Amino acid sequence: MMPEAGTDFRELTNDEQIAAALEEGRRLFAGSCDFIFGAQKLGQLPPQTLPEIAFAGRSNVGKSTLVNALTGRKTLARASSQPGRTKQLNFFDLAHRLMLVDMPGYGFAKAAKSVKEDWQEMMFDYLRGRPGLRRVMLLLDARIEVKPHDLEVMKLLDRAAVSFQVVLTKCDAVKPTALARKEEEVLALTKRHPAACPFLSVTSSETGLGIEQLRAELAAFALPPQ
């Protein structure tokens, strides 16, 4: 039995519906996923024809790697060990049902101040003014403390009334006890932000931890299959 359209995966309690939602997530992310555009300026944004899910986070937090893990492709979104390499909004059409947006990283230290300001201004303007944006997945590295730039983005999302969900990345590199403490810390932080979802996702692109569940959550925002 499929859950009703738009039902949050975390609200499901029926085993049959949970299994159906996981399968729907698998099927969606196993479909075609094509890079369609990289926008370096707001005026270059493609028309909104699909619901959009954006991936935001500090440079080198693992946004591109997570997109690749979700779609089961190794090089769909280009990942780099060099912070700040993603310099544009990259749009990926997922099965003609959902648009994934890989955003420029924020908070990197090596880029010139003027370049950082330009990139971040575009990112912030996109978040404020994109009606088709359904949710921002805000990635935090589970190995390190929450940074001031992360807190600034949370406040911005509150002001813009853009729903965001925290995703902890690189959780395979954290021991279980430390990870549990990290989850508790971040959940307490999200309670202070009205735009934040009251839950978070614990993931590892290396081991696949949480990837199946995150696919199911995101599938709830997709258009129905044709």
UniProtKB/TrEMBL annotation:
Residues that span the membrane, as ranges: none
Residue ranges constituting the EngB-type G domain according to the UniProt record: 49-224
Organism domain of life: Bacteria
Keywords: Cell cycle, Cell division, GTP-binding, Magnesium, Metal-binding, Nucleotide-binding, Septation
NCBIfam families according to UniProt: GTPase_YsxC
Function: Necessary for normal cell division and for the maintenance of normal septation.
Family: Belongs to the TRAFAC class TrmE-Era-EngA-EngB-Septin-like GTPase superfamily. EngB GTPase family.
Protein name: Probable GTP-binding protein EngB
Gene behind this protein: yihA
